[in-house]
Amino acid sequence: MANSIRPASFTLVISCPDKVGIVAAVSSFVAARSGSLLESNHHTDVEQGWFYMRNVISAASLEVSLEQFRSEFSSLAASFAMQWQLRDNSNLQSVVIMASHASHCLADILHRWQSGELACQIPCVISNHENLRSMVEWHGIPFHYVAVPREEKSEAFARVTDIISQHQANTVVLARYMQIIPPSLCEEFSGRLINIHHSFLPSFVGANPYQKAYERGVKLIGATCHYVTQELDEGPIIEQDVIRVNHSCDKEDLVRLGRDVEQSVLSRGLRYHLEDRVIVRGNKTVVFLS
């Protein structure tokens, strides 16, 4: 993988009850340790009374270690009842990708990973079909074929879970993986299991959304990248996009155009997740765009 060179940095993500002085307190804390902010975003949900912040701090500027920063910040965090994390951006996340027969979303992720646009490690791809093997292995990535029978699927998903565990995945991406994920895996990877749905949710949930869209004569089709929960296609939304269609488009046109939207939406959503730009609260997200 040819990752582009990025300056060493730490990302601090915070959410907490809104209160006067949070920005000043965090900024003063970072400045007192000579920290230089490379990027800073914050947002207040006035209706919910909840505050969100994301800061990227230059590692070279800090006069303290990451461990010392984390230890000292915990006291400040407690005073504001913060939910927070501090991540060293040089430690790339391990992302396991799952796909079925369609190749477009997987191919787009692999291209962006190879070019350095997606800063992560991809230890393997898991599929319930064999047709993607040659493309995956061409990128030097191990390919695991795990057949999923129509009736009894528990053994297959036990194998999938074992593979994910062996590779110590931080995140799992469903790149058009056309099987329902069992509740145990949804729970284990809550907020770290990403799916692309080929519809602008909440419209046309479930299977065959392009047929449903065609039957309704829609003028816009779209795709939705979201976190997976036990409720099918109901998880927190990370990213969405649409493309215009008209009465001359048949179902095959909708599928063809929809694929372009799907792959770009999934790759963007994954990048936002990898860069800690997404903060989940309940079934909603705040996404700090670059």
Topology readout:
Layout: E1 9-17, H1 22-32, E2 37-45, E3 50-58, H2 66-79, E4 83-88, E5 95-99, H3 104-114, E6 125-127, H4 133-138, E7 143-145, H5 154-166, E8 171-174, H6 183-188, E9 193-197, H7 209-216, E10 220-227, E11 237-244, H8 251-274, E12 278-281, E13 284-287
Parallel strand pairs: 5-6, 5-8, 6-7, 8-9
Antiparallel strand pairs: 1-3, 1-4, 2-3, 9-10, 10-11, 12-13
- As laid out across the biggest beta sheet, the strand order is 7-6-5-8-9-10-11
Largest sheet: 7 strands, mixed
**CA-atom Rg in angstroms:** 21 Å
Q: CATH topology of the largest domain, which one?
A: Rossmann fold
Q: What gap, in angstroms, lies between the N and C termini?
A: 23 Å
The CATH superfamily of the largest domain is identified as Formyl transferase, N-terminal domain
Bin the strand percentage. 25-35%
Shape: globular
Order of helices and strands: EHEEHEEHEHEHEHEHEEHEE
Q: Which CATH C-level class of the largest domain is it?
A: Alpha Beta
Structural class: alpha/beta
What is the overall number of helices?
A: 8
Mean pLDDT: 92
**Residues in helices, as a percent range:** 25-40%
* Unreliable sequence segments: 1-5
Query: Which architecture name of the largest domain does CATH use?
Result: 3-Layer(aba) Sandwich
The total count of strands amounts to: 13
In short:
The protein folds into 2 domains: 9-88, ACT domain (Alpha-Beta Plaits, 2-Layer Sandwich); 95-287, Rossmann fold (3-Layer(aba) Sandwich). The protein contains 8 helices and 13 strands.
